[in-house]
Amino acid sequence: MLRPFIGAALLAASTALFAQAPADASKAPQRKQRFDCSQAEDPKACEERRAKLRDAAKKAREACESRPQGERRDCMRTEMCKQAKDPAQCEARAKAHAEDRKERQKQRAEKRKQRMEQNQKK
């Protein structure tokens, strides 16, 4: 008669133990920086450049947040290049990157289409 109650008590206690979060879960994972300024030749200048770039990106995001998704990338590019030392060079470089991106997307789409055709033949 006592056996079912003990089993139920053990089951309830074990589920409560497994439901607790691990001790490390409270620490949010920090995002790794793309470049570590502490290893640069001039760490202070590096940090200043990064801060300037973050501010420029924040201003560009605020200026472009009302744009539809399709236009947002172009808006961000123009806003970021407006704040560059050489806006014309920045625009040229950004357009070259955009063309490369379109080409890569086209190649991926072709590969995807080929894989789908091969899967349909099977």
Search tags:
single chain; 122 residues; mainly alpha; 4 helices; extended
Overview of this protein structure:
The protein has helices at residues 3-18, 43-64, 69-82, 87-121. It starts with a helix and ends with a helix. The longest helix is centred in the C-terminal third of the chain and has 35 residues, at 87-121. The chain is an all-alpha fold and 122 residues long. The chain contains four helices and no strands. The protein has a domain at 37-83.
| Mean pLDDT reading | 83
Distance between the termini: 61 Å
Largest sheet: none
| General shape | extended
Content-based structural category: mainly alpha
SSE sequence, one letter per element: HHHH
Quaternary organisation of the protein chains: single chain
Radius of gyration: 27 Å
List the total number of helices.
Answer: 4
Please indicate the percent range of residues in DSSP E strands (runs of 2 or more). under 5%
